[in-house]
Amino acid sequence: MYKLLLNLRCIMCVIGLLLCLSTYAQNSTISGIVKDESGKPIPGATLQISGTTAATSSDFDGSFKILAAKGNVIIASFMGYDTKNVTISDQTTLNIVLKTSNKELQEVIVIGYGSAKKKDLTGAIATVKSQEIAGRRTVQVSDALQGAMAGVTVTRNGAAPGSQSKIRFRGVTTLGDTGGNDPLIIVDGVPSGNIDYLNPDDIESITALKDAASTAIYGSRAAAGVLLVTTKRAKTGKTSFDYSYEYAQASPVNQPGTTGAVRYMQLYNEYLSNDGAAPLYSQATINNYMANNASTPDLYPDTDWQSSIIKNNAPRIIHNLAFSSGAENIKTRATFGYSSSEALYDNRGFKKLNAGVYNDFKFNSKLTASFDVSAVRTESKDVNIFNNNIFLDARIMPPIFDDYYSDGRFALGKDGRNALAQISEGGFKKDIVSNLTGRIAVNFKPLKGLTLTGQAAPTLIYSSSKQFIKVVEFTDVLDPSKKVAVGQQPASSSLREERPYYYRFNGQFVANYANSFSNNHNVEATVGYENNYSYNETITASRATYTLSNYPYLDVGLPTFRDNGGSAYETALSSYFGRASYNFKNRYYLQAGGRYDGSSRFNEDQRWAFFPSLGAGWAVSEEPFFKSVKEWGVDFLKFRGSWGQSGNERIGNYPYQASINLYNSLFYQNGAVVAPTSGSQVNYAVNDITWETQESTDIGLDATFLKNRLTVSGDVFYKQTKDILLKLNVPLYLGYEAPFQNAGKVSSKGFEATVNWSDSIGEDWKYSLGANIADAKTNVDDLKGTSILGDTSNIEGEEFAAWYGYKSNGIFQTAAEVASSPVTNASTKPGDVKYVDIDGDGKVTPDKDRVILGGSLPRYTFGFNGRVTYKTMDFSFVAYGVGKQQVRLSNYAVQPFQETFGNVPTLIDGNFWSTSNTPEQNAASEYPRLSNASSGNNYAMSDFWLVDGSYLRIKNITFGYNFTKKITDQLGIQGLRLYVACNDVFTFSKFPEGSDPEVDAISYPIVKTFMTGLNVKF
Q1: Which of 125, 346, 542, 961 could lock onto 496 through a cystine, CB 3.0 to 4.6 A?
Q2: How far apart, in whole angstroms, are the C-alpha atoms of residue 104 and residue 118?
Q3: What domains appear along the chain, each with residue ranges and CATH number?
């Protein structure tokens, strides 16, 4: 038995050895070289046996060796080239030629009512993809666009939960404030009023149409540009569930400092002394104050209001769930998203709920359809506060007023002005917006190249706004049972509610045709009709004197203190549009298009207008003579130019009609008071009001270099908007307000440039870098001799919204200097700001001595981005900045004793002119003396308060890890990713400490956010 087992063991060993020898014999060394189309070797190319981990790289001369068996497939790849598969037969030597990849140029981009390959475009168009949008880790889509595209400027007004940023294309389009400077937003072919309704994780791409050749097909709504948003849809393949979760903490980036109680009293005494008043605080009070604070803090408070009101952290959570199923005939994607953001103070927050179902049906090869339903619900809540600004009170309240008494009661603050008490007990403001959009589209292809599309898309928006103001009761500091009457409180509790309702309907019929003839002539054409209808209705109601202050309902308030109102309007827009494009051998491009719009906002005689466009392009790299240039690394080069017109009809509702105000007048008649209703015309009607029309010209180029690893795009442009509505003066004897008339002109000119580089190092490392820069300067060309004056002014021939004020000449140092100089008023003294007498009449006056001080709008906006991946790990960053901007320091950042009692910013403490200083110290002082009498002089609009507002901000840094397939298979899932990230964490600027170049001193601050999250694919 033993011998038998021994013999079997020997036989098995022999068989195993033979199998090994057989396997070894099947593998052979395959050698070869990897070249490009011109025959040049490609070093560093990756060669991998399909289905295995066996791989190698080509040497500096393109040569390689790898073990492979007959029937194996070698995958050859290199950045900038198309991947090539080679099947091994009997050969042992391979000559692999990789073709230059032009995937980016072949990329299909969404344009107006259709799509086009990137290389075929003649207009200025930029696109950001889903990975870039979601990767920026923002709740609001508008914030994710900051720095993402050249020529698209995104300006934040703070980082309050739910706040929306302003988006501008290529400078300013019009003078009005009725939305004419906002780009038209189209989501899956349907006009939308708000891009921030969307969930960033649901977006496939965002395309910006910036020049008139691209936007003219949208006619009267496109003067300020167009944003085309495409949402994600299901693809053919197996069913999947995707879940993502993110938790974040936000904290303020910059906080201005304020003084403590002792320093406040010292400075307040100097403030009074400078204006000739006696000190308020004795030296003994100041000397003993902190000792008294330790023993009786309720009577001697030292309150840091900013720390009491503003929290160090505000949490945020995001949940997203997506279901996707794609069969041949039916594809469905369903999404659900929820986000909740708290504020930097209590009882303020923002919640957003997104849900949608997107379906694609294929009935046969000629008939397809889409049916989508999406819903959004947002809820924002806030508190009622004096002046409606928490941050104002946090920074203005002096430390000598208490926030809480030591027994936990709310203190009086300043005459009942206690922001903490208002936050807790002063009532609330709540706004709820519910948006439901449906879309059904049917596509029919009766002939080769022809697609007919019909679309219907209704939208319902219902809003609810409620403001409940409660009276906060205060008690005496020493006697909690004794109520104290205060001056900074409303007379009674009150409730106001508003219920806006919006209905919009969009209907379209579009025919698209595309065909090629003889492989040389490529033709595309689009014609269509579109109708947009909008109905808006609002009702309001209010009541006051609520005895039950915890029941914020209208029927609880007394009916004797009630009011109500309402309004309604409707608009319609009918349009016919078309576009035709032709290219010869993908070398010469021509495009023409236009739109014929009719708007109900105008009188019948002015209702219709046509907006044409032309575009042309020359792909020089497709010329036969360019082949030799390609050898020098130029893969693609195209010049393009465009001209076109677009319009602006967002100028209010029916401005050509006269308005009549109805009101009740009280009369005493027959022993009784009567209130007959009467009316009066308040404006003079100008019937021929018509469109604001923008005309623009654009010249650009697109190029790729070094095997398409380097892409470059650039544009220069000029645009002018004419027939802008202005209120021109009319004779006073008419008795009307100045009517709107088509009279103004503004123009913008500038440039844009974008550079991107992508490459790999070996098999495991991949990286990409991108940069963009743009500039747009807007000038006021024509105001018909009028001027719009203010701290920022619009004056003919000057820059739009230019700073307008006095030119400063330092600070007065001596009484003799004051006596010998022109001044603004008789109270001017040493330590006050000195101004230049522009007209030389011996005095400084606002009518004759204010001048243009420079532009207020950002110039040279730029963005950077980068991404590095190593196997399953990735790192990315995004930066944004402004290269040139003059920003006025807010008075709240530099002016002490606001409202005659406010705190003192630490920014100026120790750096202002003072009688206690030496002459040398005063000569070096940056800020004027402490004075109320001279505040009108010192803090008037002037270049004294203009500072360099250029900055660079690191918008996002993300580290991510994707678990390997081996681990995810063990977990029973398809994919798992973990990441940590931060937003707005670093800022580089010359701005004064405690201030921010994006927001002023009393706005909701920019926040730095630290977050962690996961993505799971089931």
Answers
A1: 542
A2: 7
A3: 21-101 (2.60.40.1120), 104-234 (2.170.130.10)
